[in-house]
Amino acid sequence: MGPKTNTLTDTFGRAHSYLRISLTERCNLRCTYCMPAAGVPLSPKAHLMTADEVYAIAKTFVDHGVTKIRLTGGEPLVRKDFREILQKLASLPVRMGITTNGITVDRFIADFKKNNLKDINVSLDSLDVQKFKDITRRDYFERVYNNILLLEKEGFNVKVNVVLIKDFNDSEIVDFIGLTKDLNISVRFIEFMPFDGNKWNVKKMVSYAEIMKLVNTAYTSEKLLRLQDAPNDTTKNYSIKGFKGSFGIISSVSNPFCDSCNRLRLTANGCLKNCLFSSSESNLLGLFREGKSIIPSIAKAVKAKQKIRGEMDTLEKLKESNLHSKNRSMITIGG
Ligand code: SAM
Ligand code: SF4
Questions:
Q1: CATH number of the domain to which 52 belongs
Q2: Could you read off the pLDDT of 10-24 as tens digits, one per residue?
Q3: What's the rounded Cα separation, in Å, for the pair 277 and 263?
Q4: Contact of 8 with 65, CB cutoff 8 Å
Q5: Among all ligands shown, which has an atom nearest to the Cα of 192?
Q6: Is there a domain that residue 13 lies in?
Q7: Domain extent for 58
Q8: pLDDT at 29
Q9: Cβ distance 191 to 253 under 8 Å?
Q10: Which ligand places an atom closest to the C-alpha of 21?
């Protein structure tokens, strides 16, 4: 069914056709850039959307023009009823994807295939076992790496997300691009972003310009190809001549892509966020449980979306740490 109204179009004419749904605030890793060492206060289970509520709320968005859904978290695959949720959502006319840390994807290959989930983004920030342990505070490198190989072999559309941190993993950029020689995957370098409790500092960020400087040193201009980006793509895509895969850069900090933003985010406790960087939220689950229509609240949240990066439109504002703590930790937003 096509959009019935302009519920999902904001005051800047951006039509929102992409919904990212966080299924849980829990995770089997503890990435330093995503969550504080002490963890985050978790919502009581009764405050989280059930499988039926995820479906019903997602369906309302689909009825109003959403054509793409990505499941995220926390770690979406730790949710016990993940298979049930996937199966329910697969009955909607949408393209489905998931963002996962990859630890247990090997157990879900058949479910992904059966439910036509093709787009799988796996986070992997280092190819070095010890550094992986340092950043995730857990020892699962082999599992994640082998699962990326498995997904590629099984023919999924695999993207590997690498959050770059200065003097930690920026020395691995060329190694990551090297993976795309024989693997048909897309490696995406993500600029480190500020959220509550992640000790962000602009000096820790590796910018698009810095990444390209390194890439240009490793590959001549004849070898480096700039690829056509898909509409609403947040990534600037490249490949190396003769390599099977590609790589890209997501520059939310140094070069935001808000003009073409088509994303909305639903948190595991049923709140709608109109922007990753905005601290304002609309409690859709509360209304849904009271038996009220969630459509006016969705329309209001979409119309309130700011032009650039929520309340952090300038780099100066991004640097204000009091604004970081107004927003949630990334683990409870879903990326
Ligand atoms: N657990 C899953 C995973 O790690 O892929 C899904 C949730 S995670 C919050 C989604 C994405 O957000 C991951 O690719 C992660 O690397 C990214 N992310 C988390 N914190 C970030 C930050 N501070 N800056 C940039 N990306 C971040
Ligand atoms: Fe967990 Fe993903 Fe956050 Fe890492 S980035 S702590 S894997 S939710």
A1: 3.20.20.70
A2: 999 999 999 999 999
A3: 12
A4: yes
A5: 1
A6: no
A7: 18-333
A8: 95
A9: yes
A10: 1
Residue with CA at minimum distance from ligand 1 atom 21:
34
Distance from Cα 157 to the centre of ligand 1, integer Å: 18
Q: Taking the model in full, what pTM does it have? A: 0.95
In a domain, 212, yes or no: yes
Nearest CA to ligand 2 atom 4: 31
Kindly state the tokens that stand for 315. 């780099």
22 CB within 6 A, ligand 2: no
State the closest ligand 1 atom to the C-alpha of 334, by its place in the atom list counted from 1.
9
Phi and psi dihedrals of 307, rounded to 5?
-65, -45
Q: Which ligand is the nearest neighbour of the Cα of 76?
A: 1
Confidence of residue 1 (pLDDT cuts 50, 70, 90): very low
CB of 97 closer than 6 angstroms to any ligand 1 atom:
no
**Domain count of the chain?**
1
CA 103 to each of CA 18, 78, 85, 113, 123: distance values in angstroms, whole numbers, following the listed order: 25, 10, 19, 18, 10
Regarding the beta carbon of 267 and ligand 1, being less than 6 Å apart is answered no
In a domain, 329, yes or no: yes
Q: Ligand 1: distance of its center to the CA of 164 in Å?
A: 11
Mutate to test the pocket of ligand 1, among 161, 201, 253, 309 (most ligand atoms within 8 A of CB): 161
Site to probe by mutation for ligand 1, drawn from 24, 31, 199 as the one with most ligand atoms within 8 Å of Cβ, is 31
pLDDT in tens, 234-255: 899 999 999 999 999 999 888 7
Backbone phi and psi for residue 125, each to the nearest 5 degrees, phi listed first: -100, -10
Q: Is the dihedral of CA 103, 105, 108, 111 positive or negative?
A: positive
The verdict on residue 148 lying in a domain is: yes
Give tens-digit pLDDT for 143-194. Answer: 999 999 999 999 999 999 999 999 999 999 999 999 999 999 999 999 998 8
